[in-house]
Amino acid sequence: MTGLDPTSAEQAAPLLPPVDPSVLTVDELADTGRRIAARSEDMGLRRWFWGEGVVLLGMLRLAEAVGDDLPPFVVDFVDRHLSQGIAPDHVNSIIPGAACAWLYRETGERRYAAACEQLADWLAARTGPGPLEHWPGGVWADTAFMAGTFLVHCGRALDRPDLVGEAARQWLAHADVLQDPASGLFAHGSHRGETIWCFWGRANAWTALAGVEILAADPSLDRIRERLAAQLTALADTQPAHGVWDVLVDGHPETRGIVETSATAGIAAALFRAATLGVSPELLRPAAWRALSGLHPYVTKDGTVTRTSAGTVLQLVPFGYSVIRDDRIQPWGQGLGLHAYAAAVVTRLCR
């Protein structure tokens, strides 16, 4: 290969050694998850947007996994926004609605159902025969989660299987554009109708998590099961020995050694949950524990998930992913961390 610039990769911070999986007891997992949640509450999250939505759903999943009550932070956040009125202006504004659906199932309060219906109608008005565009002319993996996961939770809460079916259709439509038929990995997105074959880690986390949400709602969806299995098998095959994937998961020389914890957390959650759903558990479950063992040292005592890359627009060349800052706390890092630790707790308890 010519024209490569491995400068950023060569200057990547040293890796933190993984912990022994035996350290990850139910108590340790639950304590770490609660610290991540507490740190998330202190971030000053105020927007009805995608990072906040990932945190809200992660908090709900963790509380369910460890047997805690509904998190007051989630209830207060959602109620405050509903009282002010929500006005989605982008597909990334949809995912907080998954928390509305969850709260409706738990409480039966009609205001949560009304918010779900409003967001579902907004999506329906923008949906055509193909995949939802993230931006005009661009299909991004992010949308499979931001819209698809909402549709699953909304469909289950409102007893509308058509919404779950739409989530499945969207997932497969995105896979047709973004999933590499040779490897099974997902690209970040397309630009002006052309797929850019950069196998961004968080793209694979978004699509894998959306896939398990859909499969959990309808285990009969064999096409999603097959394509999700291909993706997760490829991720297990490309996983570094220390467990934490690079920002591009295929070992590209321009990003090799630049680890990305939010992607690893999201992929770990998907691996745990897919294994529980019967997708190659003998392969995926060990990969999930390797991922969490590698991730665990990157969670600080105050609950910050470090080495999470900033919000990342589609990059047209692999080098672009090597220069995204990762030195700040990010809500999606916290949220995907919550998903990972919740899924690990459930796995431990179900042994």
From TrEMBL:
It comes from Kutzneria buriramensis. The keyword Magnesium does not apply. InterPro entries: 6-hairpin_glycosidase_sf, 6hp_glycosidase-like_sf, Glyco_hydro_88, PolySaccharide_Degr_Enz. SUPFAM superfamilies: Six-hairpin glycosidases. The keyword Hydrolase applies. One of its GO terms (biological process) is carbohydrate metabolic process. GO terms for molecular function: hydrolase activity. Keywords: Hydrolase. This is Unsaturated rhamnogalacturonyl hydrolase.
